[in-house]
């Protein structure tokens, strides 16, 4: 079995099905792969919850501003 020099370790991106292309140098060879670390390109649940809260608060603030502006506009039409 061929040993891998630690300097030869590579970081690759997976496709949407979690597959990695190793390259033609590994064609017709048995390859053992170890997953050392996994990084997600999506935010975790805490980040999503914080972003949702912030967006919700912003929407509430905008709704209040719109309510005041809308009432002023309608009142201006009645004059």
Could you explain the architecture of this structure?
The relative contact order is 0.06. The protein has one domain. It is mainly α. The chain is built from one helix and no strands. The mean pLDDT is 81.
**Helix count, per DSSP?**
1
Low-confidence stretches: none
- Outline, from the CA principal axes? rod-shaped
Residue fraction in strands: under 5%
Count of extended strands: 0
Write down the overall mean pLDDT: 81
N to C succession of SSEs: H
Radius of gyration: 28 Å
The biggest beta sheet is recorded as: none
What is the CA–CA distance across the termini? 90 Å
Oligomer: single chain
Helices and strands: which structural class?
mainly alpha
How would you sum up this structure in a few lines?
This protein is an all-alpha fold and about 80 residues long. The protein contains one helix and no strands.
Any chance you could write out the topology, listing elements then pairs?
Blueprint: H1 45-78
Structural features:
mainly alpha, Antitoxin
